[in-house]
Amino acid sequence: HEQAGGIYIHVPFCVKKCAYCDFYSCTVLHQIPEYVDALIDEMNMAPDFSFCADTIYFGGGTPSLLEPLQIQRLIDAACRRFSVASHSEITIEANPGTVNFQKLAGYKKAGVNRINIGVQSFSDPALAFLSRIHSSADAICAVETARSAGFDNIGLDLIYGLPRQSKGLWQSDLQAAIRLAPQHLSCYMLTYEPGTQMENNLINGRFRPLPDKSVGYLYELTVRYLKDEGFDQYEVSNFSPSLETRSRHNQKYWTHAPYLGFGPSAHSFMENRRFWNVRYLETYLHTIGQGNPPLAETEALNRRQLMMETLYLRLRCADGISITGFEREFDVEFRQFFSAVIAGYEAEEILEIVGNQCRLTQKGMLFADGVAARFIDVI
After folding, report:
1. What is the pLDDT of residue 48?
2. Can you tell me the distance from the alpha carbon of 117 to that of 127, in angstroms, rounded to the nearest whole number?
């Protein structure tokens, strides 16, 4: 049966660049109207795809810098151009400090039914360190405003593992989040991405990173605390109280479902091919202005690459790898093929095989990427 696909729309604009972010973004907000037109042109140029989409995701950057009518035009264009299911999950990422009641109510009216708010922290010193433009009070206000504007599917993003962050400080962030009764939480460990302002500050000794061991303790606290509050960890960084409130869109990336990405640097995946767009806004606008698709590169994934990605993506998810599914897709005897790796990790209680699923334990989740690397070495 054909998997339902997803549509990703990248909005590269930001009021200002955050020190830790390595996504492509820019601050030329006056170009937004021209950009919205270009996105619609790109959708109309896209090749025909057979799949039906049941998710549309506006990511960024800061999609909440767009006006509701602009979001409405983009949703309408996607629905005209592609087969989009009527019960689709339509998500917008929003930053506190860029939304008010009118705007949020406008998004809801335009058809957006899920909102992901980039809170990052409820501590003003932490927000200052992350160079966010909002305060803790703005964050709380944004969530409450979204709810009063009619959103009943609200996700929050948080970042932990900041320099000098204690268990107590992080737990008070989690408590503040839970008090707002969200339907979804993403808790990301702070990473120092190459080329970012924050990596530069680290190299120049402006702060000392939190030791790995302490980050590990904060991770364990996160899983334990959220579990007690009724939130299940369904992927390394993602938590939700029910199957229905998991991010339907993000799960597509972890299961090799087909998806199409629009906008600069957006990626697409289709029939074992991955392709992605030019990175810069100027290049993107220029290419589309000339009537050409803004494609940068395309690669066909071979069996080994697909196997690697399946291991890497599925091990990050709580339900892990379906052994029979893996065997059917790649024609290998899973337990035999990976026997040495499995035995070693089972002994360390990092990995378990339960029925048909090979999955990481809660302790193992902390080492997901390393474990995946060991599996990949075998291939």
Report:
1. 82
2. 14
What single DSSP character describes residue 247? -
Q: How many CA atoms lie within 13 A of 117 on its CB side?
A: 33
Strand (E) or helix (H) holding 45: helix 32-45
300 burial level (CB within 10 Å; 0-12, 13-18, 19+): exposed
Give me the amino acid identity at 319.
Answer: D
161 SS3 class: coil
Dist. CA 349–CA 297, nearest whole Å: 41
In the numeric block, which tokens belong to residue 312? 């890497």
The amino acid at 122: F
Instruction: Pick the closest to residue 279 from 15, 16, 5, 22 (CA basis).
Output: 22
Distance CA 118, CA 184 (A): 12
Instruction: Work out the percent of the chain whose per-residue pLDDT is above 90.
Output: 97
Q: What is the pLDDT of residue 267?
A: 97
DSSP code for 51: P
C-alpha dihedral over 4, 71, 156, 189, to 10 degrees?
A: 80
Q: In the structure encoding, which two tokens stand for residue 71, read together?
A: 């979001």
pLDDT, residue 1, reads: 52
Q: Would you say 272 and 300 are in contact if contact means Cβ atoms under 8 Å apart?
A: yes
DSSP string covering 184-213, please?
EEEEEE----TTSHHHHHHHTTSS-PPPHH
* Closest C-alpha to 136, from 126, 145, 144: 126
Q: Residues 6 or more apart from 315 whose CB is under 8 A from it? A: 321, 359, 360, 368, 371, 372, 375
Residue with tokens 């909002």: 134
Count the alpha carbons within 13 Å of 150 in the hemisphere toward its beta carbon: 12
Distance CA 105, CA 112 (A): 10
Q: Is the pTM value of this prediction over 0.90? A: yes
For residue 175, the surrounding DSSP H or E stretch is helix 167-179
**Residue ranges of the chain with pLDDT lower than 50?**
none
Is the CB of residue 45 less than 8 Å from the CB of residue 82?
no
Structural tokens at position 15:
């009021």
Hey, which residues does 154 pair with through a beta bridge?
A: 115
